[in-house]
Specification:
Layout: E1 2-6, E2 11-14, H1 20-26, E3 45-46, E4 52-54, H2 63-67, E5 70-71, E6 76-78, E7 82-84, E8 92-96, H3 98-110, E9 118-122
Parallel strand pairs: 1-7, 8-9
Antiparallel strand pairs: 1-2, 3-5, 4-6
C-alpha cells in the first residue's frame, strides 16, 4: 500500500493495481473528477513527491505534461508514497498587470492548478 497525501492534509491509502482516484473515493476523500477514464483531464494533478504510473492510457495528458510529473489520478496508480496538491480541482480568477498574471500563473501551476482552470484579465497600460 502507498500513502497518498494531499497538500490540504487529506490522506488515503492506495494499493497497486488501483487508481488513486478509486482509492480516494473509497476512503471518502473527494478529488475533482468528471469522466473517470482519462478523457476530460478534470482530475489532472502534478506529483510533488513520489512516483506514479499509468494503469491505462491517460488520453488527456500530453507527453510534455507527463515529463513534468503531471498525471491523472483516475488512470494512475501509486508506486510509492505520493504527495499531490489540493489545488487540482480548484479554479482561480486573477486580475492585474501582465507581469502579475504571468507570475501567478506560473506559481499556481507549480502548486498543481491545471492551466485550463486559471482565468484572468490583465490590465493594459494606456500610455
Amino acid at each position: 500500500m502507498s500513502l497518498i497525501t494531499l497538500s490540504n492534509g487529506a490522506r488515503f491509502e492506495a494499493g497497486r493495481g488501483s487508481s488513486m482516484l478509486d482509492a480516494a473515493l473509497a476512503s471518502g476523500v473527494v478529488i475533482e473528477r468528471n469522466c473517470r477514464r482519462g478523457r476530460s483531464g478534470n482530475c489532472k494533478a502534478r506529483v510533488t513527491r513520489g512516483e506514479a504510473a499509468p494503469l491505462r492510457n491517460p488520453v488527456s495528458l500530453t507527453a510534455d505534461e507527463a515529463l513534468h510529473r503531471w498525471m491523472l489520478p483516475c488512470t494512475h496508480e501509486a508506486f510509492t508514497d505520493v504527495q499531490l496538491p489540493a489545488l487540482a480541482g480548484a479554479a482561480v480568477y486573477a486580475c492585474g498587470s501582465e507581469a502579475m498574471i504571468h507570475g501567478a500563473r506560473r506559481l499556481l501551476a507549480d502548486l498543481g492548478l491545471p492551466e485550463k482552470r486559471f482565468y484572468f484579465d490583465a490590465f493594459v497600460s494606456s500610455n
